[in-house]
Design goal:
InterPro entries: Retrotrans_Pao. It holds the Pfam family Peptidase_A17. This protein has 239 residues and is α+β, with helices and mostly antiparallel strands. It has two domains: 98 residues, no CATH class; 73 residues, no CATH class. The protein is 36% helix and 10% strand. It has eight helices and seven strands, in the order ββααββααβββαααα. The strands form three sheets. A three-stranded antiparallel sheet has the order 5-6-7, with no helix packed on it. A two-stranded antiparallel sheet has the order 1-2. Strands 3-4 form a two-stranded antiparallel ribbon. Strand 5 and strand 6 form a beta hairpin.
Length: 239
């Protein structure tokens, strides 16, 4: 996405670099990057500005796709819905064309409809959906960091956290504040879909914090009873 956006001539010197290669005896050569680069702090916001400006410019021609890009896009993840498979196919077609007007190639499409997915060339589908048969189930894709079950059209949560001690996950061990924080913060839920459950774990951690114990000191037995209940119920959010 970044390399598809040109820098105005007056600003290219801000991306000037020196290069000599492996032969240190050769004179240094100067290059300038004429497009946005990875690592520049302004690149993400500039790319988003171009993406939205492009949608504004062509919204009369691609009304629904432009609205979706303006309102339902996070960075380079485009998320939208359609009432019918026919309209979904048209929306995808228009979105691809609209993005191409700015030089952006949009791919990795996923849908809860096999009909819609089969209408797309394999190179435009999400990697897990390139080969799609009648018997095959639609895959689980990552959307904005969340897991989306495209077969059932719902978000799902996985509770196997490889960085968390297995004894902590099974509540076989009295945790320290550090171990509590590690597990509580492992539940990625930016939309607050399971906050009614995760808030309990945060409250227990808050109570552990109020004891003023050290980070690597086990929490009191009374708190562990509450914590154990919460940990053993945690897998329920993945059902």
């Amino acid at each position: 996405m970044f390399h598809q956006v040109e820098i105005i001539p007056a600003d290219v010197d801000s991306q000037r670099l020196l290069w000599r290669g492996r032969d240190r005896a050769q004179p240094v050569e100067e290059y300038v990057m004429r497009v946005m680069i990875f690592g520049a702090s302004c690149s993400p916001s500039s790319a988003l500005y171009v993406k939205e400006l492009n949608a504004e410019e062509f919204k009369m021609e691609f009304a629904e796709a432009a609205e979706g890009i303006l309102k339902n896009t996070y960075m380079d993840d485009f998320i939208h819905e359609a009432p019918t498979e026919k309209k979904a196919g048209k929306l995808i077609e228009d979105a691809i064309e609209l993005f191409s007007r700015a030089g952006f190639y949009i791919c990795n499409w996923a849908s809860s409809s096999k009909t819609v997915m089969k209408s797309l060339p394999p190179d435009l589908r999400a990697k897990n959906l390139v080969e799609l048969s009648e018997e095959a189930e639609l895959s689980t894709e990552r959307v904005l960091g969340l897991l989306w079950d495209s077969e059932n059209d719902c978000f799902v949560f996985k509770t196997n956290y490889p960085k968390v001690n297995e004894e902590i996950l099974k509540a076989d061990k009295v945790p320290t504040k550090r171990e509590m924080a590690s597990l509580v913060m492992s539940v990625y839920d930016p939309l607050g879909l399971v906050v009614h459950f995760t808030i309990k774990g945060r409250i227990i951690f808050q109570e552990a914090w109020a004891t003023k114990s050290d980070w690597d000191e086990e929490i009191p037995a009374e708190l562990f009873k509450q914590w154990k209940w919460w940990v053993l119920e945690l897998p329920q959010i993945s059902l």
